[in-house]
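Usage

Read records sequentially. Each one opens with the input sequence:
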Amino acid sequence: MLLSLVLHTYSMRYVLPAAVMMGTAPTYVLAWGAWRLLSTLLPARFYHQVDDRLYTIYQSMVLFFFENYTGVQIILYGDLPKTKENVVYISNHQCTVDWIIADMLAIRQNALGHLRYVLKDGLKWLPLYGWYFYQHGGIYVKRSAKFDEKKMRSNLQSQAKAETPMFLVIFPEGTRYNPELPKVIAASQSYADKEELAVLQHVLTPRVKATHVAVDSLKDYLDAVYDVTVAYEGTVDLKGQRKVAPSMTDFLCKECPRIHIYVDRIDVKDIPKEQMYMRRWLHERFEIKDKLLIDFYEAKDSKRRSRFPGKCVHSRLSLKKTLPSLLFLTGLTASMLLTESGRKLYMKTWIYGTLFGWLWVSIIV
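and closes with the structure output:
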């Protein structure tokens, strides 16, 4: 009985982080909404400056849980610049934690507030978050023939015109690589073979449309593309077969001891401009990722497994970067919930904010 209770408590370690991250959402949206109203008569760049600062506060709180709370070790390889740049970030995609990896790199450049995302269209229906991500510069896209290139291009060009700092996150695979879904992997490999492209083992065949539109639309505004390869340690079974990467719940339960992140900075002038050439270039980049992951998971020499080649840095995030944001947002939320009027405002924000957001995205997005 006691052992069962201990195990249950151990498995519920994600409850506190989830409660805080979700619980502070109405407070955050209210603060952002107040600024949005105040800034209506100001130039767009002033709105974005404060919006980015607010987003930095919220995402810093998120990183408190995903780094400081979990105690995960972040091991960096490659050439992540220390100073912020306008970039397109492309990465392999295997779980929901991949979104947090972008946060982890951005905060190390003091660029956390500049994160914008290319998101699956269905995510626009997330309560509160869905329409806020769009307001923050996120772009919702549909797959294949429904992909609206013109709309994405217009969105990005307007942001560049407003001099909006850009850390644009794209997952070119379009969906997650999941070893438990062999049919998806097989279909991806079959497509590559049909198109006479290299067949990939540990990543899916990338799709070029969103990456091409992003780089082409921002070509005079971007500094670089960050090509990021991520591996979660501990995702191999006893037979040496790759397992599913950790979900956010698994991660917050401290199921992942180390994350290995390989960053390759590519100057924008070195990237092909035509889509047909960029398609080949992007596939070659994913071939490089595949080779890195083959060594990480399957290298015959055990010393080469569970690491990427080259020098690495164990990067630890200081509490100074995250704890103040946690205290600020939780304190603000707690002060609201202490009064009856505050509690009513809090609940109305959840209810009416969600309904308004759904109406907004159904019409605008």
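Summary fields computed downstream for this record:
- The chain is about 50% helix and 15% strand.
- Residues 44-69 form the longest helix (26 residues).
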